[in-house]
């Protein structure tokens, strides 16, 4: 089982310690001297087998690392009241002050679901492939700058061997093979969130999210922080300890990909969306991992009423503590995209700025999403292709950007090139969702707005 073995977590936790300012040098020396390995660059586990002594040491060191003081904690709180207090421009509109539902909401919600699916499918084949590999693949097939689905047709063998597709997802997400929307965790989680809201209502708690996961979520379909949280639930831990106990992935992107539905359930109310996303996120994440979810939910809530992408970004960024790494990354990305007409130069700067982060960390991926939204200017094709060309978590970022721009434009205005191959259906291993249509997902999302 990858992502959960103690000896595979220490390297990731050491990297997390460096990012939040903990002095872990003594722990790192003990780990290296014992033969422990660093964080694998792509997967959660090393190919090196671990004996019982190394595993026992890993468990002790993980607990020692958890006790180290965190200098960034004051600027990056996880407590919701502290987050709200830290935001000088926290958006209004929660609870009784929620704005009236906008005209054309059904088309915009449907556009969000379809846009999320299209962006996800575009990014699926090149997930885990670095930026330079994505460009070489696209250039070799006449698709650079990226303007369409990836394809294996005409791809030279040498390029294919140098940059192999994501074997799990590429067969169903290449241009020549797309026949409906294939299953993906970036689509399963919004559907699970929809079911959560239907079952427990808008006042759901983090414990309800945990029950939903244990009831409905196939454990083999979750990774990183979510898999650790499931392990912790099965060990008998309760939130928020499920997010903190031996979980070095707690600031990665997992909660961010779960958050869109909380925005769709709170159109025009970024504060309400962010609060809901917070209750979902703290099952598995802390600090910047939670902020990523709050930002994504605020983005999707704003996108259902905003006039353009930059308005949605500016509204959503108000839920981010200004001293956090997430806020700095989002504001910097927006400024870069606004000032630089060449998006490749924007990406050069972002990759230099976030070079030390894992490819599925929340901070760098939120920066890529923000830059693509601002630079894309509401153009669906330009926006989703821009964020996928950034590398990092291509299917997750493509999904988020597609969701936001799909909501801004509405389903009727989305290009048929992107929508027709999806066949108005989504594959899923979630109970009751396999083969569900975007029409039904839209109707069920709209029904949430009529609940007390």
Overview of this protein structure:
The mean pLDDT is 95. α5 (105-123) packs parallel to α20 (380-389) and α19 packs antiparallel against α20 (380-389). This protein is mainly α. It has helices at 6-20, 25-33, 52-67, 80-86, 105-123, 131-140, 157-162, 170-173, 185-200, 206-216, 224-234, 241-244, 260-264, 270-281, 287-303, 309-316, 325-339, 343-353, 362-376, 380-389, 394-409, 416-419, 438-448. The radius of gyration is 21 Å and the shape is globular. The chain folds into two domains: 6-74, no CATH class; 80-122 and 181-448, ADP-ribosylglycohydrolase fold (Orthogonal Bundle), CATH 1.10.4080. The longest helix has 19 residues, at 105-123. The chain is built from 23 helices and no strands. Residues 16-35 have a biased composition (Basic and acidic residues). Keywords: Hydrolase, Magnesium, Metal-binding. One of its GO terms (molecular function) is hydrolase activity. Its cofactor is Mg(2+).
């Amino acid at each position: 089982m990858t992502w959960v073995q103690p000896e595979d977590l220490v390297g990731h936790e050491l990297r997390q310690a460096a990012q939040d300012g903990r002095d872990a040098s003594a722990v790192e020396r003990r780990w290296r001297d014992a033969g422990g390995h660093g964080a694998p660059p792509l997967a959660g586990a090393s190919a090196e087998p671990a004996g019982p002594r190394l595993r026992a040491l890993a468990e002790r060191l993980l607990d020692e690392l958890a006790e180290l003081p965190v200098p960034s904690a004051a600027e990056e709180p996880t407590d919701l009241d502290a987050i709200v207090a830290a935001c000088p421009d926290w958006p209004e509109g929660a609870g009784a002050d929620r704005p009236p539902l906008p005209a054309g909401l059904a088309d915009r919600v449907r556009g969000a679901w379809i846009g999320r699916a299209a962006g996800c499918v575009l990014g699926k084949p090149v997930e885990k492939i670095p930026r330079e590999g994505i460009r070489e693949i696209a250039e070799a097939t006449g698709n650079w700058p990226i303007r369409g689905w990836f394809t294996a047709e005409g791809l030279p063998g040498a390029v294919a061997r140098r940059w192999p597709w994501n074997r799990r997802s590429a067969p169903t997400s290449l241009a020549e093979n797309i026949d409906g929307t294939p299953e993906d965790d970036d689509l399963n989680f919004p559907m699970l969130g929809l079911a959560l809201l239907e079952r427990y209502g808008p006042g759901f708690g983090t414990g309800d999210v945990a029950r939903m996961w244990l009831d409905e979520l196939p454990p083999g379909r979750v990774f990183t922080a979510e898999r650790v949280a499931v392990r912790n639930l099965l060990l008998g831990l309760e939130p928020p300890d499920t997010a903190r106990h031996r979980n070095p992935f707690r600031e990665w992107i997992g909660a961010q990909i779960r958050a869109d539905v909380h925005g769709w359930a709170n159109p025009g109310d970024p504060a309400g969306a962010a609060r809901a996303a917070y209750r979902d996120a703290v099952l598995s994440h802390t600090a910047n991992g939670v902020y990523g979810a709050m930002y994504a939910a605020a983005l999707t809530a704003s996108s259902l009423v905003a006039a353009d992408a930059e308005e949605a970004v500016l509204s959503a960024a108000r839920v981010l503590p200004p001293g956090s790494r997430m806020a700095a990354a989002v504001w910097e990305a927006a400024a870069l995209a606004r000032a630089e007409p060449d998006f490749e130069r924007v990406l050069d700067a972002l990759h230099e700025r976030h070079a030390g982060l894992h490819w599925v960390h929340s901070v760098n991926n939120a920066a890529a999403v923000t830059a693509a939204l601002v630079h894309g200017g509401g153009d669906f094709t330009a926006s989703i292709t821009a964020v996928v060309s950034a590398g990092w978590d291509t299917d997750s970022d493509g999904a988020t950007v597609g969701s936001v721009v799909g909501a801004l434009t509405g389903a009727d205005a989305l290009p048929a090139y992107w929508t027709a191959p999806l066949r108005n259906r989504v594959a899923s291993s979630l109970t009751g969702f396999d083969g569900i249509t975007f029409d039904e997902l839209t109707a069920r999302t709209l029904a949430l707005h009529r609940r007390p």
